């Protein structure tokens, strides 16, 4: 049978109160700590996290809700979030919204019912109604990658509009004027990156014909079909900007299947350097987000909010009301992964 606190008491001679205090993270005398650590190791004692959670109001679990586990972008975020949480003694409960706002709302309620300490969300919805159960339960939420339209929330992201605007300098500095875009007009990130693209073209005094504007959603099949259509134009663009990884992957596939070559016939600039630039030839120019740093910062911010929320509930010390109520938006910078996919037209 599993060892119990009574077994530890029998082995150490210490009181149940002292043992419980140690197991719940409290301070005990150094000599008692040595006795307890030795007894726990010898008895192979494992903490009942559910029982401890009832006492401490901590489950040491964070819910992570992403818009699609299929997405390599989300998979990479989950890897980094998990690493950051494990290093701090937390577990992770993952939910997939499957690109569906109703599923997202159901998953949020599921995480609330599981009594997670906090939730990190890469959202599908662009409004905050689905977060109400967490708000009502006093469970902190930090958004990643995407903001919401109606309310400010704690959020860690890049400046998508500015990232696209600055990335366009690559194409413009290489004397490209006939530039097309394949983007999303559904997801927040795609909308903002499309705005940055248009602003860069407007500042350069360059027109963007309707047939150069491929606006759909961030999906591989959309990137594939859009690039095929662009390559079939009589007035073919000399360069294409693709606003996320799935679109970039689909567009590369379309070029590979065609009689055209990159960059000789078509220059390409993509978004998110995950695997693609390491396996295709020519190597792709890509806008790169600091995904590990974003994940670590989201975890850091969430755990800070969890601690503040717990202090408010328990009255352990004076609660900083202003700090809790003011949402924090952390904007992280991007960089360009250099490659060979852009031709100079000078």
Question: Could you say which structural class the secondary elements and strand pairing correspond to?
Answer: alpha/beta
Helix-strand topology string: HHHHEHEHEHEEHEHEHEHEHEHHEE
Number of helices: 14
* CATH T-level fold name of the largest domain: Rossmann fold
The main sheet orders its strands as: 2-1-3-4-5-11
Indicate the percent of residues in helices: 40-55%
Give a count of the beta strands, DSSP E runs of length 2 or more: 12
How many domains would you count in the coordinates?
A: 3
Morphology call:
elongated
Instruction: Tell me the name of the CATH homologous superfamily of the largest domain.
Output: Response regulator
CATH class of the largest domain: Alpha Beta
Our measurement of the CA-to-CA distance between the termini, rounded to an integer number of angstroms, reads 77 Å
Relative strand content? 15-25%
Radius of gyration, CA atoms, in whole angstroms: 25 Å
Instruction: Tell me what the CATH architecture of the largest domain is.
Output: 3-Layer(aba) Sandwich
Q: Stretches where pLDDT falls below 50 for ≥5 residues?
A: 318-322
Biggest sheet details: 6 strands, parallel
User: Mean of the pLDDT scores?
Assistant: 90
């Amino acid at each position: 049978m599993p060892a119990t606190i009574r077994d530890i008491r029998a082995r150490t001679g210490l009181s149940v109160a002292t043992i419980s205090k140690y197991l719940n993270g409290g301070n005990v005398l150094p000599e008692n700590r040595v006795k307890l650590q030795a007894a726990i190791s010898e008895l192979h004692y494992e903490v009942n996290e559910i029982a401890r959670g009832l006492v401490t109001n901590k489950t040491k679990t964070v819910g992570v809700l992403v818009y699609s586990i299929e997405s390599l972008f989300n998979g990479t975020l989950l890897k980094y979030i998990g690493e950051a949480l494990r290093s701090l003694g937390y577990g992770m409960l993952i939910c997939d919204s499957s690109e569906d706002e109703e599923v997202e709302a159901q998953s949020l309620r599921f995480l609330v019912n599981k009594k997670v300490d906090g939730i990190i969300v890469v959202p599908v919805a662009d409004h905050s109604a689905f977060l109400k159960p967490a708000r009502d339960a006093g469970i902190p939420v930090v958004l990643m990658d995407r903001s919401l339209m109606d309310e400010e929330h704690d959020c860690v992201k890049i400046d998508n509009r500015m990232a696209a605007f600055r990335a366009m300098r690559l194409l413009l500095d290489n004397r490209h004027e006939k530039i097309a875009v394949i983007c999303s007009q559904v997801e927040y990130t795609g909308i903002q990156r499309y705005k940055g693209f248009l602003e860069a073209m407007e500042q350069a005094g360059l027109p963007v014909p309707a047939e150069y504007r491929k606006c759909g959603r961030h999906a591989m099949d959309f990137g594939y079909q859009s690039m095929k259509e662009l390559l079939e134009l009589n007035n073919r663009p000399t360069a294409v900007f693709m606003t996320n990884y799935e679109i970039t992957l689909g567009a590369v596939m379309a070029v590979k299947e065609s009689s055209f070559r990159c960059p000789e016939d078509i220059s390409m600039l993509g978004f998110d350097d995950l695997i693609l630039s390491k396996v295709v030839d020519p190597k792709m120019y890509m806008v790169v987000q600091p995904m590990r740093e974003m994940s670590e910062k989201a975890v850091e911010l969430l755990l800070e909010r969890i601690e503040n929320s717990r202090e408010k509930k328990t009255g352990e010390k004076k609660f900083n009301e202003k700090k809790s109520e003011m949402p924090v938006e952390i904007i992280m910078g991007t960089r360009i992964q250099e490659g060979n996919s852009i031709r100079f037209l000078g």
